[in-house]
Amino acid sequence: MFAHVSIGVKELARASIFYDAVLQPLGYVRLLSEAGEGTDHPWPSAGYGPAGTDLSNTNGDCPFWLEQRADAGAPDLPGFHICFAAPTRAAVRAFHIAGLAHGARDYGAPGLRPHYGPDYYAAFLIDPDGWRIEAVSFSRP
């Protein structure tokens, strides 16, 4: 349904280090960094996607983007969050640990969420810019 999602961050370097750490256990990596002016992106940006992605087959687009913006920060939208697919429950736990180690606030420890489904295993964080993020796995232990 979506080609990509982008979020505004105050400091791209700091946010990139954070997302490098939390997305790596899920199998996602930084695929592209753009300096801003004179590039395809008007703001300094970093694009993320599955490890091994061939950007020549995607027109250079990544499914998840960080954009450094002076007015960045998470909007106050009740219920809004970004959920990343995790291959395993261990990956969800690693996402949560990496996030806390890199400045996130806990928004829900790793665990089953049976009200969403019998195998819905997730963890929730608030990133350093205030964005609510989640990792979820439907795998069984």
List the helices and strands and how they pair.
Blueprint: E1 5-9, H1 12-23, E2 28-34, E3 45-50, E4 64-68, E5 82-85, H2 89-101, E6 105-112, E7 121-126, E8 132-137
Parallel strand pairs: 1-4, 5-8
Antiparallel strand pairs: 2-3, 3-4, 6-7, 7-8
Helix pairs in contact: 1-2
**Which percent range fits the helix content?**
10-25%
Radius of gyration: 15 Å
Average pLDDT confidence is: 91
- Structural class label: alpha/beta
Largest sheet: 4 strands, mixed
Unreliable sequence segments: none
State the helix count: 2
Distance between the termini: 29 Å
Strand order of the largest sheet: 1-4-3-2
**Given the C-alpha coordinates, what overall shape results?**
globular
Portion in strands: 25-35%
Structure explained in plain terms:
The chain has helices spanning 12-23, 89-101, and strands at residues 5-9, 28-34, 45-50, 64-68, 82-85, 105-112, 121-126, 132-137. The chain has 141 residues and is an alpha/beta fold. Strands 1-4-3-2 form a four-stranded mixed sheet, covered by helices on one side. Strands 5-8-7-6 form a four-stranded mixed sheet, with helices on one face.
